[in-house]
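Researcher: Let's run the pair from yesterday's discussion. Sequence first, then C-alpha cells, for each.
Model: Starting with the first of the pair.
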Amino acid sequence: MVERGKMPVAVWVMAAVLLVWIAVGVTAAQWRMAPTYDEQNHVTRGISVLRTGDFRLCFHHPPLANVLEALPVAWRADEHFSTSMESWKSLGIWQASHTTIWTPEADGAYHGADLIRWARLPVLLFTLGLAVLIFLWSRELFGPWGGVISLTLFALDPTMLAHGGLATTDMAAACTILLGVYLLRGYLQTPGRGRLLWAGVGLGLALTAKFSGLILVPIIGVVLLILAVWPAVDGLSAAWTAFPLEKRVGKALAACALLGLTAAVVVWGVYGFHVEARGAKPGQPLPAHMSLTKRIPVPAMQYFRGLKTVKAEAKGHPAYLLGKTRTNGHGWWYYFPVTIAVKLPIPALLLLLGGVVLLAVPAVRVRVPRLDLLLLLVPVAAFLLTAFGMSMNLGIRHVLPIFPFLMVLAGGFAVLPVRGAIYPAALVVLLGLQAASVGLSFPNFLSYFNEAAGGARDGYRYLVDSNLDWGQDLGRLAALQQRDKMLQQHLYLSYFGSTPPEAFGITAIPVSGFSTYKAAPVDLAHTHGFLAVSITNLAGGPGFTSGPADSGLPRTGTDYRPLLKYLPYERVGDTILVYDLQSRVLLPQ
C-alpha cells in the first residue's frame, strides 16, 4: 500500500477536470432526456414522504434517495398531490404518480418533465461522491496515478454517466455500498468504536438507498468470519491478530452486533422513527380483535413490507435477451455476463478484467493487502453469484455496484513494472479510444452499446428495456412531429414509457404498448398511416406490449417484430422507429 503524501499538481488538475466533466456531462445529458420509465414513481414517493411524513407508498424501494430527489420539487407538487386521492388510500403508486406528476395545469400545460429534470439533480451528489471514493481508495493502494486511472474509468463509463443523472435508486445504491465497505475497511485497519459506528452508518445508508443494499449484510459477515478464522491478513490491525481464536470470533460477533444495531437505528431514522404493529396495514386502523402477536410494535415496519413486495413482484417481469423474450418470470443465468460484455466500452472491459489479472503480478500484488483483496473481491463475487440466479433480468443497472470495486483494482495499471514509453502510451491510447467512444454517444449514454455489439443501432439484438430504451426519446419524437407535416396527419404510437405523449405535445393514436395507457392492439396488415414504436415494444414482441392485470392494458399485445425487416421512415434517437405503414420498403439484405 502506498504511503500518503503530497500529490503532484498534475494529479490534482486531472482529478478536478474529471470531476467537472462528470458534473457537466451528466447534467447536460439528463437535461436532454425525457422522463424515463420509473422516475415518476421515485419522485412521487419522495414527494409523498416530504408532504405527509407517511411512508405508505415506499413499497418497492426504501426512501433515502427518493426523498433527496423530491427536495427540489416537493413544493411545486402542492396542487396535484393530495391525501384525498383514491390512489393514496389504495397504495397505487402508478396512479398516484400519474396524478402528481402528469396532471395538466389549468391552461393545459404540463410541467411533469420539468419536475423530473430538477429531481434528477440531487442524484449528482451520489455520483460525485462515488467518484471521490473510487479515487481515494485507488490512490491509497496504487498512488496518485492509480487514483487517476480509476477515476478516469468511472468518468468515461457510459452506464455510470447515464444513471448518474436519473431520479432512481441505482446510483445511490452503488455509492452507499462502496461507502459502507470503505468505512468498514477503515475500522479494520484502525479499530475503534467510533470507526465501527461510522461503518454501521454506511451500512444503514446502503440499506435505505435500495433493497439490494441488503447484500452487504452477508458480505460483512463473511469478511469478519474469514478474519476471525484466518487472521494472518496483511493490512489488518494487530488488535485482531493478538487474540486466540475464541476471542477473535467473539470480537467479530461483537463488531457485527454493533454494526447491525447502528445500521438498524439509521434505517429507523430514515423511516422517520415510525413504529407500527406487526399486523398493521398502511392507512388503516388496527382491527379491534387483532391478536397480541400481530400487535407487537415493529420499528420501520414499512421496510419489511417493501422487502416482501419486491420478493413477490420479482417473479412477474418479462425479460429479453438475444432476441428472445420470457414472460414466466425466469431469466437466464448468463444474462448479466452478456449484458456486461455488450454494454461496457471495450477498453473498460480490458482494463477492468485486467485489474483482476494484475493481482498475479508480484509488483502489483504487494501493493494490495489481503484485507483490501477481501473487501474488493468478495462484494463483486457476491453480486455476480446473486445475479446469476436473479429472475429480474431488467438491466445492467442491477449489477451497477460491482463496477466501482473493479475500477479501484484497475488502478493497479499505474504500478506495473514495465519499462519504456510504450506501456504508458498504450494505456493513454486505450483510455483515449474509450473517451472517443463515449463522446460520440453523447448525450445518449443510456442506450450505449460497444462497437463489438454494433453500437446502439444494433443493441436491440441483445437487450432492450433499461439497457437501451427506457422511454427517454419522447421529446425527440415531439420535435420530429412538429417539423414533419406527414406525421401530423395520422400517427399511431406504441410507446415504452410512463410519460403521457400529450405532455410533450404529441398528437397520436395510442396502440398496444407496455405503458401507453388505454391502448388498443393494432392490425398491422390493415392499418394505414405512420406508426412510431419504441424499440422495446418492437423487438420484445407481445411480452413487452401486454400489461399486467391492473394496468388497463390489453392482455395480448401486438407483435411488431415483422416490421424489423422494413426500412424505417425515421429513427428517433436510438429508441423510437417510425414506419410508413402504407409504403413499406424492405431493408437491403
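Model: Moving on to the second of the pair.
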Amino acid sequence: MDSKPDHAPAHFIRHIIEADNASGKHGGRVVTRFPPEPNGYLHIGHAKSICLNFGIAEEYSGTCNLRFDDTNPDTEDEEYTNAIQADVRWLGFDWAERLFHASDYFDALYGYACELIRKGLAYVDSQSAEEIRATRGSLTEPGVASPWRDRSVADNLALFERMRAGDFPEGAHILRARIDMGSPNINLRDPALFRIRHAPHHRTGEKWKIYPMYDYAHCISDALEGITHSLCTLEFEDHRPLYDWVLDQLDVPCHPQQIEFARLELNYTITSKRKLLTLVRDGHVSGWDDPRLPTLKGMRRRGYPPAAIRAFCERVGVTKKQTVIDMAVLENCVREELDRSAPRALVVLDPLKVVIENFAADQVEWLEVQNHPKDPAFGTRRMPLTREIWIDRDDFMEDPPKKYHRLAPGAEVRLRFSYVIRCTEVIKDSDGRVVELRCQYDASTAGGQNPDGRKVKGIIHWASATHGATIEVRLIDRLFTVPDPAAQEDFLAHLNPDSEVIVREARAEPALQDSTADSFQFERVGYFCRDAVDSRADAPVFIRTVTLRDTWARINEGDGA
C-alpha cells in the first residue's frame, strides 16, 4: 500500500511516511512499535498511541511491535504485562510473533554502554543524586561538570563492571553520557544511562544489579528492532536530540526517526497514574476496572465497543498542538456504534404499577417485536402484555403542563408495540404518594392502529408485572463535576456524588434476562451492557454505557456555559 486509504484523513505523520516511501527511504518499509511500561493499566490516552502505531503500520503494509519497556524492576509486574496484551487485543490489534521486552536487550545495552565508555563518551559519576541535581543547572544557567567527568577509560570500565556485579549500594555510582553540560537542552547535560538497583526483575531474576534509563534503552531497542518511525507523545520532543545522539555514536543496525504527536486528553476525567492509584487505593472507585475510570479495562467493563474507541481516535486526529477533547466526542462515537450494534429492550427504572382493568386477570397477549428497528437481521422477540404492568414514574404526572404527551388523569398514551391506554383512576398511599394507576385499554388500537382517527402523541415503555424480570441497573455518569479535575488543588473534592446510582429493582421484559447479547439500548433510557463481573445467571446486573444524548451539554447550556 503506497498511500493512506481514501477514508483516512490526512495528518502530518501520514505525510512523513508517504514522503519517505516516495523517496525510497527505509526501502519502503514501515515498522512501528507500541512501547508501554508494565507498571499500570492502560487508559484512553494509550488507546490513541495503540491505534496510531498499529493503524499506521496496517495502512502502509508494515508491521507494529509490542515492546514492554521493563527497565524499572521496582514498579513492574507480570499482571500489568498480561493486562496490556489483553487491552491491545481488545482494541482489535495483533502483534503476531513480534512481542519484545527491553529486558531482551540488557546484554546488548550493557555492551553499547561499554562502547561509549571506550570512546570517552560515558563515565561513572560518584556524586549523590542530590549533588547531580544541584549541578545540573537551569533553563538560564549551564550545568557544572562532575568532578568525576574526566576519569580514565580504564577506571570507568572497571567501575561499571563492578556496578554490574553488585559491588556497590544503590546510589553510590551512576553511568552518565559525556555530552555537554552547557547545552541549552537540559536533556543533553550528561544524562544518566545506567543506575544501580538491587531489585529482582520479573523476567531476568537476580541477574542484573544495574538497569538502563528509559532514554537510553528506548532508542537502542528501536534500532535493534529495525523501527522506521518511532512515534511518541510531545513530552519527548525535547528528548529527541538525546535519542539521535545515542544512535549517532553507536554501530546500531539502523537509525529510526522519532516523531512526536499531541497526547490525548479528555475533560471530566484524569489519566495521571498517581491520581488513578489514589482513586483505587483509597476506595473512591471499586478497582482498576471500575466503569467510571478512563482505563481501557474500565471502558471494556462499561460496554464501550472497541470500534467506537478506534473511531474516536481517528476522529480527534493527530496534531502537534496539545488540546483537551470534550468527553461528548467520545460518547457520540459510542452512541453511533451502539445504535448499529445493540438490540433493543424495554426496561423501567422507577416502576409505577398500572392495572389495565378491562384486561382479564389471567390473560397474556404475546407481542412479536423487532429486536432492532433499523436492521431486520437482529430478528424478533416475544413480549408478554398482562393485566398488571410497570411504567416509569416519570411517565405520569397528576397535574401536567400544556403539551404534556405522557400519562395523566383522563389522558391517553400508547404502550410501546401495543395498545392505547387511558388513565381512569389514581391510587395513593396514606402519605399522598401515587402507588398505582387504573387504566382502560382500547382493543381497536392494536398494532399502532387508530381507527377513529384520533392522534395519540405519547408512546411510553413498560414491562409486565407478572411475567417480567427484576434486574439491577447501575447508572454510571462522569466521575468528576469539573472539566479539568487534574488542575484543581484537591481533585478529590470534585468527585461527582452521582457518578454511580444503583437501581436494585428495575423491571424488564423477560427476554432481556435470557438474551446472549452483551449490549442493549434500553429504549428511551440509554445504552447498557451486562456486567461481566457482578452478574449472576439468576441476578443480572446492567451498567449504563452512555445516555441516549449528551445530557451534560444541556446542563451546561442551562448554566450559561
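Researcher: Give me one sentence on the second I can quote.
Model: The longest helix spans residues 44-59.
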